[in-house]
Every structure is written in C-alpha cells, then in structure tokens.
Amino acid sequence: MAGNALKIWIMTLAASIALVASAIPRDSVAVPWTNGGPLLPDSSNFVTASMLVMSPGEAIYSQLGHGVIRMECPVHNLDYCFSFEEEPGMGGIIKFFMGKTDAHMMAVPTAEFLKGYKLDGRQVKQYTLNLTLHEKQELWRLLDNDYVDENLRHFNFLQNNCSSVSLMAVENVVVDETLDFNGWPEQFKMINGAGVRYLSRFSPWLEFWNMTFLGTESDEYWPHEQQVAPELLPQVLKKATIVAEDGSSRPLVTGEKELLPLVNAYKASPVTPTWVLGTLLLFTVLITLASLKWKLKWLPKVLDFLLMTCVTLAGLMLIYTSFVSGLFGKHWNWYLIPFNPLPFIIWLLWHKRKGLYKVYLFYTVVLALFILATPLSQQLDLPHQFITATLLVRCLYNYYDGKKQTVVKTIKTKKTKNKSDV
Q1: Distance of CA 192 to the CA centre of its chain
Q2: pTM score of the predicted model
Q3: What count of Cα atoms within 13 Å lies in the side-chain half-sphere of residue 162?
Q4: How far apart are CA 162 and CA 151, in angstroms?
Q5: Are 236 and 185 in contact (CB under 8 A)?
Q6: Cα→Cα distances 121→29, 58, 116, 259, 270, Å
Q7: Per-residue b/e over 263-287, b at no fewer than 16 CB within 10 Å?
Q8: Coil, strand or helix at 327
Q9: Which residues of 298-327 are buried (b: 16+ CB within 10 A; e: fewer)?
Q10: What pLDDT digit, counting tens, does each position of 195-228 carry?
C-alpha cells in the first residue's frame, strides 16, 4: 500500500515538473535583479528604475534602435519594461501615413520583453537611474497610468519617439529638483535635416524615407527633448545630473551594464537609393538617346507612363502627409514641386492640343531650377534629385519631339494647301 502511494507521489511529481518545464519558453531570458540583495534599512533599493537601450534592428521601424524604462521590485517579484508602443489594433503602414498611429506606455515582463532582442542578436544595455525611492515610486505610478500627454501620442518616428518620451517621464518625477543635462551632445545642435541624416547614416533607405516627408521641418530646430534617439540616449544620461535647491547635485546614472551582447550587428543594404535612382537616370538617358537615333516608339511611351504614374501617386501622398495627416507636422514639402499630380492633370486636359510641347519646356525649366536649388534646403539631396533629373530628361525629349512633330505637320499642311491652290 505504501509502495503504491509512493509510486503515485513520484508519478505526480514527475508530471508536475514536466508540466512546469513545458510552460517555460525555450528562449526565455534569465534577467538578474539589478539590486537583488536584502532590503536596505532606508528601503532605497525597494524599487529600481533603469533605462534600457537596444541596438538597431533589421526592420525599418527598429533601425534607429529602441529605448525603454525598466522598473523592478524584488520584494514583490515585479520586473517590467515600459515601452512606448503602438496601441494594439492601431498599427499598420496606412494608419501611420494617416498620422493616426497612437502609442502608449505598454508594460511587459522584462524576461518576456528581451526574448525578441535575444533572438535577433541585438545588444541591450542598462543604465540605472539615481532617483530617490519616492521618485521611483512616482515614476512607476505614472507609467502604470500611461502618463503620456495627448499631444505626444501620435507616434511619428522622429519626434515623440520611444527614447524622448521615456526621458520626459523621468523629468516629470524629479520633485523640487532640476534635471540638468550639462550641455547636450553636439548632434543636438544640428539643424533637423542634418540631424536626421546623422542618425540615419547607417541606413540609406531610412534616410531617403525620412527626408521624403520631412519638408520644411528639415530647416528648423526641434526642442532637444524631442530629438533623443536611442543612439544618443546614453550620452544624455551619462552627462545629466540632478540638482537640488541648495545647489548640491548627483549624477542621474549610477550603473551601466550589458544585459544582452551584440551578436548580429545591423548591416545596411548595399543597394542604396543613390545607386537605384542613379541607375534609373542612366537607363532613361540611354532610352532617350536610342529614341533619337532609332525612333523607338513603345518603350519611351511605357517609360513616360510609368514615370507619370509614380509622380502622380507620390504627389498625392506628399499632399496628404504634408497638409492632411500631419505625419511630421503640417508644413510645405519641397518635393511637391517636381512630384505632384499637376502634370497628369495638364496631360489629361491638353494631350490632344498642338501646343502641349510648350508645357514640357516650362516643366523642364522648373525641374532644372529645382536641381540648382539643392543647397538651399536640408531636405534636398542627391537621390531625390536623380528622380528630378530623370523627369527633366524625359520632359526635354518630349518638348523636342513635340516641337519637331508640330513643325513637320505644319510643313505638310502648307504643302497640301499649295497643291490644292494649284
């Protein structure tokens, strides 16, 4: 009887162990407590607050890295990362371009949160914040209540991003003290366009994408707190101090450690926008020269149709994102000069008229002036101007071809009239 009971107990224990083991994710990340020792007499280690900085990833939305706040309370076995993320069900590229991608502070257990970064081989570094117990508790309360101001909820990639919102949360809990950043890094003194190019320097397609929509914001200066990308966050944290009313100060960061090593460094695609669009320009020039020499018909028409379609669609998107959605704020976008729906509208209205070729000449001049204006704005760059040059080549050809056809028709008309007079 005792033997049977022992067997049942052993079988039950084995089944329980197997059940628990199966419930543990294989790729779980064992994250030690930052302050896991016994509770100090002053309870200062009851809660620990840290900033985590993640290295860039492959996806376009992660190519600037990521920054979150980690909150720990070993006494109650609580360890969460608060990340500024899109609201569930509100994501998607369409809603992003509509300027309706709202975000909030999402709490995820740290071990669960770091799993994806471990799988991707991305580095995660932790910077322990030197806050008082009251400030840490207040920070946790704010994060739990999703403190984010409504004006900051519209996630737009460059402002109101993960790092800037997290840093603002820390600023909000410094009571009767001042958070002094002791001189921002040099990158924060750059005009917006130069700053965006600096942060996107390892990702040419991300830079191309940002500069397409940045518009006149390129030539402005954003507040420093809204420019804190993950790459710059460690510099800001290490220089910052918390200054009391009596003038005494303490460093904002007291500890730094690596939670996950860098295994897979982000590698930008060798096929850059400059290479792709430069090739398009070269192809267009060759097609145009071949048309002049061998009088090609269908290939130039197909090329013009594709260019017209792309320019029209790009123009509609720029109009919407610049003046309706406010993706980066409602402002003028310089690329609306070469890329807009107006050429298509004019073609629809005038394509049967004899004087259409004169419109091509006007547009050729506009495109040439736009290329010459490149140094005047931070938004204008070589890849986009390759597209402008491509349009210029085709407009110049269509002006030449249209004028030539008009002259030929005029001569034929005169000959026909002279014959009829005779």
Answers
A1: 14
A2: 0.82
A3: 26
A4: 15
A5: yes
A6: 12, 11, 9, 12, 21
A7: eeebebeeebbeeebbebbeebeeb
A8: strand
A9: eebeebbeebbeebbebbeebeebbeebeb
A10: 999 999 889 999 999 899 999 989 998 888 777 8
